[in-house]
Amino acid sequence: MSNLEIEWLGQAGFIYRFSNGMSVCVDPYLSYATSTGKTRERLLPVPVPASQVNADIVVTTHDHTDHFDEHTLRPMAERPQTLFVGPSSCRAHWIEMEMPTWRFLRLDRGESLEIAGVRLTALYAEHDSGSKRDAIGIVLECGGFRVYQTGDSEYTQPVLDAARDLRPDLMAVPINGRAGNMDHRQAALVTQAVQPGAVIPMHYGVFRHNNADPQDFVDACRELGIKARIIVAKAGSCFTL
What we know:
By secondary structure, this protein is of the alpha/beta class. It has a single domain (about 5-240), classed as 4-Layer Sandwich (Metallo-beta-lactamase, Chain A). The protein has five helices and 14 strands. The strands form two sheets. It has a seven-stranded mixed sheet, with helices on one face. A seven-stranded mixed sheet has the order 7-8-9-10-11-12-13. Helix 4 (about 185-195) links the parallel strand 11 (about 170-175) and strand 12. It is globular and about 50 Å long. The N and C termini lie close together (about 10 Å).
């Protein structure tokens, strides 16, 4: 039986390590940067330097600094075999950074890519992405595992329609309820619709002004009778499915 190792980097950042040796990092934010070029206080220190993250594929679901962070992506790009994937808005930002265009593969809603045995599919997310509105959720399939990370998203019918009955082995969902994201109750409703084997709340614990209590999500899931395993992760630590 193959295993999937997951490491939460805080906020919406995850590393998924599949049994075939491929590792996929989604939405890493490993700096103190803001969109204005200034720095900001973090409740959670950076758990690992970006230069030490060995990922074969890096997915950025949309063009906001805590998901597409130049100070994180440039050090990660020093690993020559790493490929970067995301929607058109993220690719445009990558080109503005004067980074090699061939290293960033466009993946917009409804599209799929396969890279070295990992299938990536972009789903609808209700969220801005820089000046555009093309944010995505991402489905990763490899080694018999299916992972669904919703990306930042509000709770809307198109989001439910895109992911209903997906039944992934693991789903990661935001719970902060601010800045274009669903709250813990809405995240529980999405969990009920998607029917994952396990679910992990995300997008909390890093910024004081945009925080949430994961126990509220746990309680909301229990009230709905959700049977999925609920994982409240510690940033920088790993768990296995």
